[in-house]
Design brief:
The chain is of the alpha+beta class and 96 residues long. The chain has a single domain, classed as YhbY-like (Translation Initiation Factor IF3, 2-Layer Sandwich), CATH 3.30.110. It has three helices and four strands. It starts with a helix and ends in a 12-residue tail after the last strand.
């Protein structure tokens, strides 16, 4: 669980990120969740774009992905989702 200070810090980091994954009309698949988990293991934070033709809303997609990989949803704005998952062995981001 993130504190408001940590969430604000992660939002400031994510401003310069571009979406690394897209959720389309096929929804969230197990293979996609696995790739997202691998990406977060290296980078710890990422943006995901939920396309307009998706069957999921951004909130639904973020909740499903975060629950599956035990990540934290930092923010959902429009069709953009920001996820954070701390790498316990080699942390990249030092939270306040």
């Amino acid at each position: 669980m993130l504190t408001s200070k940590q969430r604000a810090y992660l939002k400031s980091i994510s401003n310069k990120l571009i979406p690394a994954f897209q959720i389309g009309k096929s929804g969230v698949s197990a293979a996609q969740i696995s790739r997202i988990d691998d990406y977060l293991r290296v980078h710890e934070i990422m943006k995901i774009r939920v396309l307009d033709n998706s069957l999921y809303s951004a909130k639904e997609a973020s909740a499903e992905i975060a629950e599956a990989i035990y990540a934290d949803v930092v923010q959902v704005i429009g069709s953009i989702v920001i996820l954070y998952k701390r790498n316990e062995k080699e942390p990249v981001i030092k939270l306040p």
